[in-house]
Amino acid sequence: MDEIGDVDGVAGIFARESSYLDRHVQLGIASGRVLSVSFPDTPDEEAESDHDLLDRIFDYLDGVEEDDFSDVEVALTVPTDQRRVLERVREIPYGDQINVETLARMTSGIDHTDEADLNIVRTALDQNPAPLVIPDHRVRDGPSAAPAVVEQKLRSLEGL
Fold first, then answer.
1. CA–CA dist 79, 87 (Å, integer)
2. Counting beta carbons within 10 angstroms of the beta carbon of residue 138, is it exposed (0 to 12), middle (13 to 18) or buried (19 or more)?
3. Which among 37, 102, 134, 145 could disulfide-bond with 98, CB atoms 3.0 to 4.6 Å apart, if both were Cys?
4. In terms of C-beta density within 10 A (0-12 exposed, 13-18 middle, 19 or more buried), how is residue 114 classed?
């Protein structure tokens, strides 16, 4: 399997409109890694619509394939503690959900009884650069970087 985003050296911005989400899914890709996932009403004017990861995302959104996207490489340019949180979020399986405290327990260096550490978890979720690929919608009592309507539709799709 080719590296996502590194197919024939392809990099850039890719977007496609989703009727399920009633908005676009837009990816930023470089060096074979996802830099960002966003859900704009109107995509970047230079965005292209043909990308293997968009195909997978649309199979997921259309209910064709249960995909956790765990094999997709993401370039996380966030502080180390937030990176550890987001790496644990990627381990939450399709159709499962946890809460912020459980996520804190799963994350090394984070104390689930310390409010400051719980805030680190919430901040990581809120500033997630790649919602859907890093499925913050599976953390039921935490913020999501995706718009609320998108988060709710992703949760509904997975039966959460």
1. 12
2. buried
3. 102
4. exposed
Phi, psi of 88 (to 5 degrees): -70, -35
Query: Which residue shows structure tokens 């809120």?
Result: 126
The CA–CA distances, whole Å, from 140 to 7, 46, 106, 151, 156 equal 35, 35, 15, 10, 12
Q: Which two tokens stand for residue 51?
A: 């990308």
Residue type, 109: G
For the stretch 115-148, pLDDT in tens is 999 999 999 999 999 999 999 999 999 999 999 9
Residues 82-99 have a mean pLDDT of 95
Distance from C-alpha of 149 to C-alpha of 115, rounded to nearest angstrom: 28
> Which amino acid is present at 59?
D
pTM score of the predicted model: 0.87
CA gap 64, 129 in Å, rounded: 25
What is the set of domains in the chain, with CATH numbers? Answer: 7-61 (no CATH), 80-155 (1.10.10.10)
Can you state the angle between helices 80-89 and 115-126, rounded to 10 degrees? 70
